[in-house]
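Summary for the steering committee. The consortium agreed at its last meeting that each partner would contribute one worked example illustrating the joint modelling workflow. Our contribution is presented below. We chose a case with several input lines so that the handling of multiple components could be demonstrated. No manual editing was applied between input and output; the record is shown as generated.
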Amino acid sequence: MVTFKLNGKKVQGEEGEYIIQVADRYGVKIPTLCHHKVLEPAGMCRLCTVELFDGRRSRFVTACNYPIWEGMEIHTESELVIEGRKLLVELLLSRCPDVPIIKELATEYIIEKTRFKEENDDCILCGLCTRICEKMGSGAICLTGRGVEMEVDTPFQIQSDVCMACGACASFCPTGHITLEVINNRITNKNARLIPSEYDVGLQNRNPIYIPYAQAVPNAPVIDRETCIHFKTGECKVCTEYCGVNAIDHTQEDEIIEIDVGSIILAPGFQPFDPSKLDNYGYANFDNVMTSMEFERILSASGPTMGHITRISDNKEPKRIAWFQCVGSRDINNCDNSYCSSVCCMYAIKESVIAKEHAGDDLECSIFYMDMRTHGKDFERYYNSAKNEHGVKFIKSRVHTVIELPDSKDLEIRYADENGDIKTDIYDMIVLSVGLETRKETVELAKKLDIDVSKSNFATTSSFTPVSTSRDGIYVCGAFQGPKDIPQSVIDASAAASAAGELLSTSRNKLTKEKEKVPSLNVIGDRPRIGVFVCNCGINIGGVIDVPAVRDYAATLPYVEFVTDNMYSCAQDSQSAIVQLIQSKNLNRIVVAACSPKTHEPLFQETLTDAGLNKYLFEMVNIRNHNSWVHKDNPETATDKAKDLVRMSISKVALMKPLEEAELNVNQAAMVLGGGISGMTTALSLANQGYNTHLLERNEELGGQALNLFKTVKGEDIQANVSDLINEVKKKENIHIHLNTTLENVEGFVGNFKSTFVTDGQENCIEHGVAVMATGAYESQPVEYSYGNDPRILTSLELDKKLVDNDSSLSDLNSAVFIQCVGSRNDERPYCSRVCCTHSIENAIELKHRKPDMNVYILYRDIRTYGERELAYAEARKEGVIFISYKVDNKPVVEIKDGKLTVTVLDHVIGQSMELETDLITLASAIVPYRDEKLAQFFKIPMNDDGFFVERHAKLGPSEFATDGVFLCGLTHYPKPIDESIAHAKAAASRAVTLLARETINTSGTIAETEPGICSSCGVCVEICPYSAPSFIEADARMFPGKTQINPVLCKGCGLCVASCRSGAIHLNGFDNDEIFAQIFAVNE
Amino acid sequence: MLGYIDKIRGISEKLLTEEKVDMVIGFKKGTIPMMNEPFVARNASEVKDFVWDSNCGINLANYLTDRKETIGIIAKGCDSRSIVNHIIENKITREQLIIIGVPCKGMIDHHEISSMFDTEITEVTENGSDIIVKGTDFEETLKKDSFLQKNCKVCVHRNPVIHDELVADMVDEQKDVDRFEEVNKIEVMSQEEKWNYFNDLLSPCIRCYACRNACPLCFCPTCFVDESKPQWVGKGPDPVDTRTFHFLRAYHMVGRCTDCGSCVRACPMGIDVRAFTKKSEKDCFELYGWEAGLSIDKRPALETFKQNDPEDFIK
Amino acid sequence: MSDWEPKIISFLCNWCSYGAADLAGVSRMQYPPNIRVVRIPCTGRMSPKFALAALREGADGVWVSG
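What follows is the complete predicted structure of the assembly.
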């Protein structure tokens, strides 16, 4: 250790350190232009010159490369030093009068104008570029020439071969002398360019070391081996000098790990279609034509423009944006993707609505589409509101030409409108709604795994095993199964897990390990003894906030017994230290001031548990995400804020009480309501995974709506498959079938339901841990198109029945008409029934196959054959089925005259009314839910305006309810075809098994509790709780009849009841009134 | 009025004699003018004390809280709405009650009349639409309609909304009143004007909690002002505590207050605390189409949630 | 103007706004250091009493987000 004096203060440094390093550590700033901590010092700029007193006399040395020695005295701001530095700056200013960093220095040293002759250079010959170039291991540039001729250049001024175009020289150059342009024009013979960020689809750039995106899991940086120079030259390693915890290990190699598995689930996803190969839209050449993925980033608050919508060409706000649908979908002319990508219509509508929200209502949004496919739950409503409330324009047309106007870079488009007229229009921006396709690599993976893929490169599956690939034990979910949106992907994912779970149920829990339990200390009644740990988080917190000051401040606060700061509080050694300190210092409350409780609270709580302390005696102070990271330019106020926050948390934690988490057994039986395809599939899946399952069906036989269906779109025989399924269910020992059954009553809650039902007049009661709603829906009875007045007018199901029965009346038809959207997409039912387009097309093809010269017409509004169902649409057209679109305000007219059946419809293409004489009219009637209010009441599950049950989360929780332990699948959720119903059924089983498999459930500690003595029985809590946790104590109870109690299992700890309780009778453990008040009261010192 | 009284006494007597109820709650003449008192008749002989005039402003629903007996109760429009609220909030059951509805033409504002005279009023009598006020040294006849309680002036539910008996034919509801005139006036004030207005309004408050005690909605076993852990409101005369009390009390009334005026009537300092509740009444009405106490099947506005509830006020 | 700075007490829902504030940090968005966050489990937990208490404790503003 070397001790010396720095500006009169005693400081210490390691032998061999330079003055500037020690000064930096002690917070003494010495100006420099040529020094960088990762490079060897060179003493080039001389700005760091300081005064050295060696005991006898003073001299001047450069701090960057003068080693320290015992007893020396250094002055960094003496009069002579300042005077000399001023001269140096003045000289630099004369050489580089326009360089910002020099100008700043000049201002700092109060030099208005240089007295020397001004040159027009921008290089100060600091040599940072040449030194970093050497460090990178390339040495492409050096200082050439002598004296006034000296400059940075390549040998012989030839664009270098050895240069790796890494750009390090440019990023180190303090003056801007070396830029990307300079590198490309003078230094390298390669192409130096910024690295486009994959996440921002190239709209922003990233470093070779980067966190892929803010929500990445794990949220740790990765090194991109392709661009990292170390992996090219073995040199650099600059990053290691910055990492405070030595986490970077360049020697790590990819490893091949072999694991034994019983099943494989494929979820490789998709890639967005690349429209640069399409020349008609000019994506590759026109700045203001972008893909929907790029537009998503533009709309995102965390995107390159922070959600501000601007054009790429001139950063101007667009006034008119057009979306082109079906780019890379439903197209075999420009690409090979004949299928529909399923999601683009909806995302385009969403983008247009959000764009209007961001930019204001005067932004004009137009969507050019072929068929608007809003077939998902609540999607049709969204479409209607985009049209009617937000004023998004929908134009039915495929644009054929886009021209970029030379000066404005606006885009002129040409298209034929619905009447066939050619229109021209100008837009500021065009968004291409690109489709989904399978990656090449995924197709190769499929080959390697020996599973079949369809012509469209999606995994081949059957409608009855929608997540099973062609190879046993290999399952598939998400967009590789077929293009689909989030809810459907989530359903698939759960279904695949269920399929694998069924296969491997005998091995369940074989690899799980139990953690040892530490006996917990009793601290009730003890005076609070608070331990405070303030984290530096490397330099993430410590670089902005004065951590020692916060630590010392905390020590002055009431009940604080111990304080310390950690480099990383979350590190393993810090955790063990916390455990030890809790025990040795007898701490009974812990405050950690570090990052977010949302990410790290569980970790610290586990540490408390390991020390025997109840995990709720803990508070986290977020001084990183909410402080140092967002106030980096205000270190002082950030430190004050950190102190405030620490004080608030200390006040709160002192009041925290140890909380119990009760453990409850989960009854291992399940109840499935509904014996249709969905209910049977769920029951079978649960039974296959070893759970006793009661299957309740209202009718006298199993099968549900499927009993009326003919074939799937893939041509599979539904009757054969359903009877197989019924037989399998009947054979299964642990499925208990209850036919002719109605549910009469349900008591209890998750894990412990008790249901009463009546079978053939006989009352039964079962106990079960979970319940699945698979109660289905039915076909509506049409009230239009003369339905019921003529036996030749059928509904879709009636036609199916005839097809199943091979009814002779179908054999001598000359003409058949299908009318779509009968009872769907109208005011009464503003939803799309999803299956009818495909269904009618299937049957149209069937009729054509039976009698090829039959005239078959489908009268439709939008054909919604999403995914690979689109292929059936194409086939129907090929087979000669005639599609005529009609408008909702000009519906087809059905007439029965003299025994003749006619349909009159306005054909838009020819602009004329057509009268079709026909022998058969099939009405694609709506799918209607049962609207079972009683069931909704039993399980406290919500229902939407249409009468379908509302799942926990439209995107992420499609198979379960907000009510714990209750799940749903099939038509009761929304109309869907058989393959989706089966996937949904398996998904519901999968979600249910996550609960059943745990065998016990822990209640949370942070739940509400009533104090019955204060309760006024007003019932507000009972009314408002979304989870039905509060209830009245029975009137005949011994204690507190009529007051409320809260079921700890159902309570989610949201505190709605607490805030609503006028009497103050409800407490929220962990966030109780006095605890929150303590925080509020501590906001000021 | 005399007709009303006979009918009230008659019905009460019948109910008590036939033992259909254990008691009848109504009014008897107060010991000071313009202040009729609540009176509980437990047997038929007591019904002779029941009176009815324009001084029956107290909300009798207040006397139903948590009672176990069967009760006959005299109810004007606002009382009946408060009874509805009591039923909704489990303070009494519908089966326990026989509601003797009284179509009401408004109660007189005793604060206003008292403030007109410097010396004590010794007697106030009613004659049709006139009120005769007598003191030791004066006698004056006033028009009743001009001296109604403020809440009665804008009342649109004078008839009982729920009743088993009626003492008279329903009266015509007031049509052309601007129910929220007072609120509208405050709403257009500048921030500073509002501050001053409420400051002046609350400055006489002595925190006696008479408003709370008179209010049929204030039935919590322990009121928040009396709690000590946490102490929501300081006990001292700090104006901040006074404001806090009034603000929070007003919050507790949202969607429940029937604008019966009991609070104002009970206030010894004559503070119009309805300034707070009237605003919440207006918001409930305009945002959710909600009026308190009209149906025993519907919970108050803030306890229900509809997808299409307006949320423009959330910023 | 003086260099007075307001102190704003913000009640943030654990599930959305608190997480959003975390994300603002991750994204290094810079904003003035005037807020003091009180984490609540849901804005349903927010009581008018908290807002009043904050104001009377000298807060210059109360921000509820969820």
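The two ends of chain B are 52 Å apart (CA to CA). Residues 2-17 of chain B form the longest helix (16 residues).
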